[in-house]
Design goal:
By secondary structure, the chain is mainly α. 24% of the residues are buried.
Length: 152
């Protein structure tokens, strides 16, 4: 089936068109002036950047690192008598349970540890106990950046 359309329309008298709408709405609402866009606005009126909403993995890693900063970092034990924790202990506190965020944050932390310190590390505790606080912190910060970049 072929449908043909006629593209020849009668011209519209713009004045008549405007008068018809004026009769339908004799007192139009005032229109606010348009805000100019671009550099004319200046730096004071620029739009705010979008708010970052961390994913579950990024939040778990960030909360765990904050826990280590507050309570201290430990080697060779899950929980130090004074409250410090090793990396895996901090992850457990931050995640609240052995859930998907806990597992994924741990996998990302171990992957970053292997990236920075070699592939020989089988677990977070073995890597944690073999490095200095500065080396461990460097891995935590890089893992958080990776999670943020991946939006997880």
């Amino acid at each position: 089936m072929t449908t043909r359309t006629n593209a020849h329309f009668a011209p519209v008298d713009q004045d008549l068109y405007a008068k018809a709408f004026q009769l339908l709405d004799p007192t139009p609402e005032p229109v606010a002036p348009a805000v100019p866009a671009g550099p004319a606005l200046g730096p004071a009126i620029l739009a705010a950047p979008p708010v970052h909403r961390p994913g579950a993995v990024e939040k778990t890693l960030t909360d765990a690192l904050a826990f280590l900063d507050t309570h201290g970092w430990a080697k060779h034990r899950l929980i130090h008598p004074e409250g410090a924790r090793c990396s895996i202990g901090a992850l457990r506190v931050a995640a609240g349970a052995r859930n998907a965020a806990y597992r994924d944050a741990g996998n990302l932390l171990l992957a970053e540890a292997r990236h920075q310190h070699g592939n020989r590390w089988e677990s977070i505790p073995s890597w944690n106990d073999s490095h200095t606080g500065a080396q461990v912190r460097s891995v935590w910060e890089a893992a958080i950046r990776r999670a943020r970049h991946a939006n997880i």
